[in-house]
């Protein structure tokens, strides 16, 4: 059941009515959220209800022991919790990767042995809810959670249905505190939620799904395309990825608002980033901040005696983990490796932690525009490693881009209206880049007819370009 499907609309309307009209206490609200979340999860992946429930219960009781254990015992309880979470994640997501690479190693040594890969389905959202569980245990260990929450609240936190497919990965100490009290319906928050969902639907259905029609065909025949066509395809995919993933995040956050729950922000207009560090502060914020807090920070402390080399090493390890988190394929690992390497000039230049001062002007300065274009193209090039099915495909794609055929006219056509839609989205996001999301306060100072006219344009475009519901790119992770 996709967030952009009619089935979900009917499901959510029923849940919304029961949640606000029939639930009289925070406990009954949480029970309704849990039942709804498990129904939502079961529709996607009913075979694994016991897995998510079992690992949630296990990590909850391990967390309780972490809270009361002596300092000498805490590390053993934490290791057990990490083993439970990473054990199920590694088994379902990475076992075949290790088997296949071990078989390749055997071939190098001309061994006749061969281990068969496993045949199974990967549970939907396993990477996202695994990091929620792991973050909960680490928050207890780091004393960010100082009291035991109820099992019901923890189960809701792990399986919260708007975020189960593709995040955001909320921090436990922020999310769980919201479940302690009864949520009171707030008309302002409800309005903000609807507007954020509207913008998310626009990005997903009008931008991402329209581009997907082009990129799907382009990637299927990439070997016969010239460099300029491949370059255009790379740019289009980067925009598609952003519109698809941030569109989902907007819908998830907006749905949370409708339920009186604040979900962590996941994107902050990354196309307007001016360097590598600025980009990663804006892109998939919940994942990068999670890995930064729980992986990079401890590593940077561990390597601090090695100066800038230690910082570079910590950054590269950090991003290799992010790459491997995305999938058990070498092209994802190299995506992470290259992401880390891109930080080296900033680190050597002493500009790693330098924040970019926000520009409130309508137009960017020449320097800002130059930096944004360079950063955009750099990360668009990086996404070749993301959408490629293998390292071989990525290398072939790069070879095509960096050939003399780059200077030829693209030998692949796409509809001009897609470019117009992209420009429209980018223009709105640039004008509203200092807001939480584009439709939050856009045109609030204008007459009501203008503001509502803009919303109706978005609704019209959604229905005009609506195709059959397509899945989300990040659902595979």
From TrEMBL:
InterPro entries: Ac/AlaTfrase_AlgI/DltB, AlgI, MB_O-acyltransferase, MBOAT_fam
Annotated GO CC locations: plasma membrane
GO biological process terms held by the UniProt record: alginic acid biosynthetic process
Protein's membrane topology: Multi-pass membrane protein
Keyword presence, Ribosomal protein: no
Keywords carried by this UniProt record: Acyltransferase, Cell membrane, Membrane, Transferase, Transmembrane, Transmembrane helix
GO molecular function, one term: acyltransferase activity
Cell compartment(s), UniProt: Cell membrane
Organism domain of life: Bacteria
Transmembrane segments: 6-22, 31-56, 76-94, 115-134, 154-176, 225-243, 309-326, 332-350, 371-388, 414-432, 453-475
Family: Belongs to the membrane-bound acyltransferase family.
Protein known as: D-alanyl-lipoteichoic acid acyltransferase DltB, MBOAT superfamily
């Amino acid at each position: 059941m996709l967030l952009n499907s009619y089935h979900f609309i009917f499901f959510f309307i029923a849940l919304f009515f029961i949640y606000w009209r029939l639930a009289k206490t925070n406990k009954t609200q949480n029970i309704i959220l849990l039942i709804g979340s498990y129904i939502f999860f079961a529709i996607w992946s009913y075979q694994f209800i016991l897995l998510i429930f079992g690992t949630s219960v296990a990590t909850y009781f391990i967390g309780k022991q972490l809270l009361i254990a002596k300092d000498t015992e805490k590390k053993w309880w934490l290791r057990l919790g990490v083993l439970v979470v990473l054990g199920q994640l590694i088994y379902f997501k990475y076992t075949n990767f290790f088997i296949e690479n071990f078989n390749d190693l055997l071939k190098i040594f001309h061994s006749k042995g061969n281990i068969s890969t496993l045949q199974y389905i990967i549970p939907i959202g396993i990477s996202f809810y695994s990091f929620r569980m792991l973050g909960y245990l680490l928050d207890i260990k780091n004393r960010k959670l100082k009291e035991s929450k109820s099992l019901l609240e923890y189960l809701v936190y792990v399986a919260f249905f708007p975020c189960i497919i593709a995040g955001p990965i909320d921090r436990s100490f922020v999310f769980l505190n919201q479940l302690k009290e009864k949520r009171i319906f707030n008309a302002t928050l409800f309005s903000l939620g609807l507007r954020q969902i509207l913008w998310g639907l626009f990005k997903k259905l009008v931008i991402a799904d329209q581009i997907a029609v082009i990129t799907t065909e382009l990637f299927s025949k990439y070997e016969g395309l010239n460099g300029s066509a491949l370059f255009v395809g790379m740019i289009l995919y980067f925009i598609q990825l952003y519109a698809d993933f941030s569109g989902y995040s907007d819908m998830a956050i907006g749905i949370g608002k409708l339920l009186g729950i604040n979900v962590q922000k996941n994107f902050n207009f990354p196309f307007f980033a001016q360097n590598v560090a600025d980009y990663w502060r804006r892109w998939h914020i919940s994942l990068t901040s999670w890995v930064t807090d729980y992986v990079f920070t401890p590593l940077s402390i561990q390597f601090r005696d090695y100066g800038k080399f230690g910082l570079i090493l910590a950054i590269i390890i950090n991003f290799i983990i992010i790459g491997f988190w995305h999938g058990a394929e070498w092209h994802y690992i190299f995506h992470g490796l290259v992401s880390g390497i891109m930080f080296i000039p900033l680190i050597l230049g002493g500009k790693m932690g330098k924040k970019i001062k926000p520009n409130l002007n309508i137009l960017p300065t020449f320097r800002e525009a130059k930096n944004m274009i360079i950063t955009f193209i750099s990360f668009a090039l990086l996404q070749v490693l993301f959408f490629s099915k293998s390292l071989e495909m990525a290398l072939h794609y790069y070879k095509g881009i960096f050939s003399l055929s780059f200077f030829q006219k693209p030998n692949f056509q796409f509809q001009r209206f897609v470019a117009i839609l992209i420009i429209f989205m980018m223009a709105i996001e640039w004008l509203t880049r200092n807001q939480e999301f584009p439709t939050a306060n856009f045109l609030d100072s204008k007459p009501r007819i203008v503001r509502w006219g803009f919303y109706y344009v978005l609704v019209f475009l959604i229905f005009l370009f609506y195709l059959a519901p397509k899945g989300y790119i990040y659902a595979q992770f």
